[in-house]
Design goal:
mainly alpha, A middle domain of Talin 1, two-stranded antiparallel sheet, 77% helix, transmembrane
Length: 368
Amino acid sequence: MSRLRDVQWIDALRYAVPVLAVVTLGLAWGRVLPPVVVVVVALLLAGAVLSAVHHAEVVAHRVGEPFGSLILAVAVTVIEVGLIVSMMVSAEGGSASSLARDTVFAAVMITCNGIVGLSLLVATMHRRVAVFNAVGTGSALATVATVATMCLVLPTFTTTAPGPAFSPPQLWFAAIASLALYVLFVVTQTIQYRQDFLPVTEEGKVIDVVEHDGLPSTRLTMGSLVLLLVALVAVVGLAKVESPAVEAAVRAAGLPQSVVGVVIALLVLLPETLTALRVARRGHVQISLNLGFGSAMASIGLTIPTIAVVSIWLSGPLLLGLGPMQIVLLALTVAVATLTVASGRATLLHAGVHLVVFAAFLFLAISP
């Protein structure tokens, strides 16, 4: 009975938090907040993020895989794009010029090393060997590597515009190309080769998760869809309310400005990380990898086109090119991930390598 009451209480919170967060957003918008209120807003922001991903997961369960992973990835990316745009608009001086780059790069490192590494760690601790579909995962990784190199590495070496930045035509080309690749991948994942993105057994048999789990009702699914949209609005708005406090905390700690982008990415990807760990524990590593690489792809494929549009109204440069250290980390990530997915099987060692690269990224972000 006590456990039942706890479950009911948690479900009530999942429905109440998005509404409460929107109400708080209306009260706090455009005001200078005292420290206590900043903490309350931060808690509501975290609750809204968790609630958003929960309701996205309910909708995802209804539509099945790989549509489920796609919905989660897009929902999280909408949050990320809203955070980036709101903070770029409110940022002062040159702090907005590199915010998109720092956040997108952090998202790629978190998803391709943090989420993938932790998912493989959980899976291999339970079953010694993590099994997944190398064809589908490899195509996802190839798309991530292409759009990441095109949008984050090439600006460092182009010469038309000064600094690690694209000229306007180059930016639009990269935006259209990355969006086109993302759409092409979505079509491939959900229509043409859906079976390549479903979990598999050690014998290579495809597992359709929907066949084994009960589906939520239509009423529950529609309610979760509405609350998902409400939670997304709350997250974007509250993040803008919190952005001055985040930047002030980074400056007060004497940390590099790029840490702001890392904080944003960690915030929006934490719930998705928990989702990936949960499905990895059930043995569905393919879904975890769909979440990881799919989020990295969506982060670039949707953020860069949005930033290209927003840049029309923003003054000052838009720095997208990575520095030498970040390029080395990105290259190492692609190389390690390629070796991980090549055979369709991963061990505890693969998980450890990804997590060490992720730890190096976090350490060098704080102490470059």
